[in-house]
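new request in #modeling-help
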Amino acid sequence: MNIVFNGRQEGLTEETPLAELLCAKGYKSELLVVQHNGQIHRPGEWQALIIKPGDQVDVLRFVGGG
Amino acid sequence: MDKLIIGGREIQNRLLLGTGKFSSYRLISEIIARTGIGVVTVALRRVDPGKQEEDVLHHIPKDCIIMPNTSGARNAEEAIRIARLGRAMGCGDWVKIEVISDNRYLLPDNEETIKATSVLAREGFVVLPYMNPDLTAGRKLLEAGAAAVMPLGSPIGTNRGLKTRELVQIMIDEIKCPIIVDAGLGMPSDAALCMEIGAAAVLVNTAIATANDPVIMAEAFSVAVRAGRLARLAGPGETSKVARASSPLTGFLD
């Protein structure tokens, strides 16, 4: 199955909880927010959220900006 | 008392700080400690695994107002989405609307900015829109619910100073909300000039972040902003084309 992760097409072997997907990718900070198919999800919701084929996932954080 | 109140919050230092381009985020906390700056902007970006840089929020004291910007937005819809994401990340209701579709000069799109301001103000955001200085657009932003209006001094990151002085002056004189000059100020004297002509505050990033010593430059800007504000409050004397003697013109010694 394919998903769009941070704007790029990516293969995924099976439907996966978002928390596991992010952990496998090495994300650590709690100061992240995820946009999944246009909806905003805080870390507490990541385990229950299952990533399915065609989903769009963006991992965001604050950076320096003017 | 000379208070600046925006969105129900009293702003102690009329210098607002943008946090981009610093060589280290540690400089930001050092600057805030040294100047008492109370409003800082941040940006929201995708973060890729393995490239998890230091978190800018760790370097901003809890009592600071964090104002996410909507940089990267090319229209109102994108700006609204970024603003909602920023609020969802738990940094409060303030937002700097920045809608830019011109990549060379990074000039803002006033029409889309007004649309975004209207929607976000209705959702309870404290909206500070970055805009091209224009009286009509400024009035529309105020009607749309902007808490302050932020015309540019010159294009973003150029350090060229207050090139838009005449238009900004008209906005200051005619629009009944705080006018904050945002973008393009290069030297503390530019900031002092903005304050002398009646700006409520200035927002500075590049001039501070790219100085050899950003902490000292921030202090210089802070002092200049205070000096300009005091001069404005003092009420400058009139100018004249011919000399007017400062010493009495009678009682000369023979």
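bot summary: Residues 18-25 of chain A form the longest helix (8 residues).
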